[in-house]
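note to self — DONT lose this again. spent like an hour looking for the file last time. sequence + predicted structure for the chain T wanted, 395 res
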Amino acid sequence: GCARDWDGLTCWPRATFGEVVKIPCPRFFEEFTSTHGFLQRNCTQEENWSEPFPPYTIACGFDEGSSKGPEDQKSYYSAFWRVYTAGYAASVTSLITALIVFAAFRKFHCTRNYIHMHLFVSFILRAVAVFTKDAVLFADETMDHCLMSTVACKAAVTFFQFSILANFFWLLIEGIYLQTLLLLTFVSNRNFVWWFIFTGWGAPTAVMFAWVLTRIHQQNTGCWDDDENGLVLWIIKGPILLTVLINFFIFINVIRILVHKLKSQEGGGKHSSHFVRLAKSTLLLIPLFGVHYIVFAFFPESTGLEARLYIELGLGSFQGFVVALLYCFSNAEVQTELKKQLCRWQYQEYLTFTHKHGALSRETSPVNYVTQLSLLDKISPKRRTSVLQDGVTTV
C-alpha cells in the first residue's frame, strides 16, 4: 500500500491499495475560517497517493487569493513565534539575575526566598524547554513530520511537558505558602521547605514517569507531540487543571483576606483608597498565581485558538519576567541591600584610589628623595667615603 505521507500541511496515515482515506482539515484553519471540512486521498495501485480532494482551498474554506492562505498563516505564526521568543528570553535573563541576587546575599536566605528561587528555576526550565522543543522539532521546515520519531525529539517533548508541570506545581506552592503567611502570624519551621521541594519536583517527576510509560506501551507514535487519546492526555492535563483550580480558589481566598485586613486597618477610611489598594494587590497576584490560565482551563484545545495563543503563550512568556520583577527587583528590602552593596563597592574603590594616590605622592616627593639618599649613605660606607673624598656633601 501507500506509506505515511506529509504534504506540508497535514499527515496522511498508511493505506492499502484502493483505500480512500478521509481526515479533517488541519486544526489551525479553524482559527481563520468557520468551515469544518474533510479531505480525502486515494491510495492508487501504483503505490502513489492521489491529490487531496476536494482541494484544501475548498474543503477548508479559504480562497487562494485571500489573505487567509497557508503562507499568510505561516507568516502569522512566525510573527507570534518572535513574540514569545522575546518574552521567554526576557524572562530567563531577569530570572537568572534574580537568582544570583538571592543566592549572593546571605540576608535573603530564608524560607520565603527559597520557595521563590525554586519558582524562578521552574520558569527558567519552562523557557529553556520551549527553545529546545522549537530547535529540535521545527528547525528544519522541510522535515517530514510523519516519519520523525527520534529519541532526541521525544526527549525534548518529555522535558517540555515536565517543565510545564513543574511550573504549575510551584505556582500552586507559592499560593499555598502565601495563604499560610496570611493566616498564621509566624511560620518558622524549615521542614515546610523540604515538603514543598518534594512536592514541587517530585510530583511532576512521578506524573511524567507514568506518562512516558503509557506513551511507550499505548501510543508510541511520532515525537509524542501529536493529539493524544483520552487516557494519555489526562495524565498530564488532569494534574495541571487541578493545580490551576486550587490556585484559583486560593487566589479568591487571598483577595478575601486582603479585603478584611484593609478594612480593619483603615477603620472606615476613604473607600476610593481602599479600592485602589485592593486593585493593585489583585493585579500583582494574577501573574504570581497564574490565574489567567483559568480562562481556557476547562475548554477543548480548539476553542478560541487565537485568544488562547495570546493569553497562554504570548502573555505567559512574559510571566517569568513579571514574577522576577515583583518578587525581587521591586522588593524594597532587595533594593536597600543592593544600594548598600553599591555604596560599599564605591567606598572600597575610593579607599583603593586614595591609597594608591598617597603612595605615588610619597614616592615622587622631594623630601622623600632626600630621605632615601640619607638612608643610602648610612647603609653604604663606601659611597660615603667616596663622596667625602670628592668634596661633595650630602644633605
